[in-house]
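Project standup — Tuesday

K.O.: blocked on the structure for the chain from last sprint. Re-posting the sequence here as requested.
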Amino acid sequence: MPSLARCFEQRQTQNALKISRLQQHLRYFWQRYCYDQNMLNDRNNSQANQPGVLYRHGDVLIGRIASLPVGAQRRIGATLAHGEVTGHSHRIQQSNAVQLWVHGSNLFLEVKEPSATLIHEEHRAIELPQGLYRVWRQREYRPDAYVEVTD
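H.V.: unblocked you, prediction finished:
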């Protein structure tokens, strides 16, 4: 039977290993957090200019794309989505900085200036860097159909 001192030593060793592992995990998460914050704060980040980057603005989702589809048609205005309940709209503040495009039922946004501001009365403004985007309205599933969400 091990002595009380031996049991105490083993327990201290186990606790020290647990603390060491916990410190490693905390260090990893802190580094990851700092990295993520740097990514968010760096507006000139090269990843922001890559296809696949997504922006959420209420019930509107905006995704970076490489090019417009062939046959896309110009659309007048700078409003991405109208709110049917509140009357508010998701729109670009600098209307001359953007061009909207439609292809079938799909909406596309071209930011022609270095950036454009997406605004809505109920959401924080989002700065979109220059480039091409696809715009989706959030949909909800119902047993009979998918329905666009209205705010």
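K.O.: great, moving the ticket to review. The first helix runs from residue 4 to 41. Strands lie at 54-57, 60-65, 73-75, 79-82, 89-92, 98-103, 106-120, 123-137, 139-142, 145-148.
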